[in-house]
Amino acid sequence: MAYALNFIDLFAGAGGLSEGFIRAGFTPIAHIEMNKYACDTLRSRMAYHYLIQHNRSDEYVKYLREKQEGESGEKLWLTVPKEIIDSVINKEISDKTLPEIFLKVDKLKGDKQVDLIIGGPPCQAYSLVGRARDPENMKKDPRNFLYKYYLQFLKRYEPKMFVFENVPGILSAQNGIHLENIKKGIDKAGYEIELRKLKASDYGVLQNRERVIIVGWKKDLNLKYPELKKEENPYKILPDLFSDLPERQQGEGSLTGFVQYETSATKYLEWSKIRTELDFTTQHIARPHNPVDLEIYKRAIKLWLEKRERLNYANLPAELQKHNNKQSFLNRFQVVNHDGCCHTVVAHIAMDGHYYIYPSLKQIRSITIREAARIQAFPDDYYFEGSRTAAFKQIGNAVPVVLAEKIANKIKEQFAYGL
């Protein structure tokens, strides 16, 4: 019988990192996340995995096909054991809540060993953009110190390894002092660490997303950093990632219901496991846009397709300049690169779609929920609970699933041979 590899996911979000580890054969003991909608998404995904394991996938398919607007995932959750749903803990980690969270995790863990802890505190506190906008407040942001709770989990559950993910800004926050404090805390907890700045497009993701991945292991174990081999990435957004989805105009689509694919899966969609065994997907919904934005989108698309140039907001006619801020963020309208990799998808996509314009004059709009999810390498059967805004926020905060799976597989190799 194979030894089960168990993990806890902290600051879990919608589960992109977790999904990669589950694919690699790890088993989640608990997910801890403060956002209600992200927790609902995790509950639905944990129900999915349970149903798949018990040859009951038809019940999940039925849920996707019959889900109604505004409905929670409760109908789905009731089809699986209560402990599966309870493994998602909807709590903000703080001094006040930590004892309660520990009790819940202890109950879920039982006598199982915690082999791994994964996750990363909310990255906005380390964001270079955020620090540029409001440097003083960012210094005082309490999210800067959430890593201390991560250390508490390491001390209590003593995993063999951990994976701590964050934005590149963590390297320079407070002139590097913040990272040094994290390293000292990890050392005191009894772990060796190394870190790498990884670019998702080097590992098969169609996105130029950079993230710092810190990996630690117990000092008395024969383990090391899970080095990933860079790969050629010849695939392109429009022909390889989006081409099988039906056309959408601005405002079209629905949070619920499903859409049939227009074509068979591309080689990339099969390789990345984005296309699943289902013959449909969900949440292919496009935002509505006002006439001014649509005209700007049209200009931005033409400029990109014809000249490979980005639109500068300051160069627009005066009647199209509706923002008061004309000094910064002049690239706020950006078209997704149709014949390469997309720029980084971030949580701001929940606010508006200006930075993620679909690269075709036949569909003048920003990208849909499903298209954004695909850029983050989520499989098409992954359902994001909550409103359109909530779904976009969950996607923007996630770790690309393909990258997470590659890290997980390398760690699994070490667990098999290095202990």
UniProtKB/TrEMBL annotation:
Keywords noted in UniProt: Methyltransferase, Restriction system, S-adenosyl-L-methionine, Transferase
Active site location: 123
Enzyme class, UniProt record, top EC level: transferase
Enzyme nomenclature, EC number: 2.1.1.37
Pfam families: DNA_methylase (PF00145)
PANTHER family: CYTOSINE-SPECIFIC METHYLTRANSFERASE, DNA (CYTOSINE-5)-METHYLTRANSFERASE 1
The protein's name: Cytosine-specific methyltransferase
Native organism: Parabacteroides goldsteinii dnLKV18
